[in-house]
């Protein structure tokens, strides 16, 4: 992968939240364990919360990620991201356009974009995204709406085409990490592999040990 990475993307493990997928445990407690294990970035993705509830959770998550010197991105909601001084936002297909989010947030905030095909990925880069998540790579119920898994061949193609960091997403468990890393991605994004683990800290640590070493520009 040719590198055009911004100095702010200093993580290769991107944890996406789902408070309904924590085996009954409180979300912030599970995320903190993952942060203790070395997770470098958290995307707060709780679409069903009211604006007030999301703000309050984002505020707590900002305090938590700051304590561990980790990045916080808010799914879709630019206003919430700005309100809690998050490190950026993650946009989907129905979100605010990338250029508009950049105008509102400025150059020093991260913009990640969910991509599910080559056109999405190239467009996101051209429009100014700092990084993308690409998937689903493997079968996963949460991404079934996007159709059949894309597989590692398409992931490798995207990783070689793009200059911005690519994070593999979708059905990635610990045993799949080496296969994904071999595709040349910058890192991985996942949900359940850590959130549902009996010991999120140890699971995060073991997954990170399989990832390529982080590097600075």
TrEMBL record:
Gene3D superfamilies: Aldolase class I. Residues 13-194 form the Thiamine phosphate synthase/TenI domain. Binds 1 Mg(2+) ion per subunit. Pathway: Cofactor biosynthesis; thiamine diphosphate biosynthesis; thiamine phosphate from 4-amino-2-methyl-5-diphosphomethylpyrimidine and 4-methyl-5-(2-phosphoethyl)-thiazole: step 1/1. Mg(2+) binds at residue 76. Pfam families: TMP-TENI. GO terms for molecular function: thiamine-phosphate diphosphorylase activity. The keyword Metal-binding applies. InterPro entries: Aldolase_TIM (IPR013785), ThiamineP_synth_sf (IPR036206), ThiamineP_synth_TenI (IPR022998), TMP_synthase (IPR034291). Its EC number is 2.5.1.3. Its cofactor is Mg(2+). Condenses 4-methyl-5-(beta-hydroxyethyl)thiazole monophosphate (THZ-P) and 2-methyl-4-amino-5-hydroxymethyl pyrimidine pyrophosphate (HMP-PP) to form thiamine monophosphate (TMP). Belongs to the thiamine-phosphate synthase family. NCBIfam families: thiE. This is Thiamine-phosphate synthase. It comes from Geomobilimonas luticola. The lineage of its organism: Bacteria, Pseudomonadati, Thermodesulfobacteriota, Desulfuromonadia, Geobacterales. The gene is thiE.
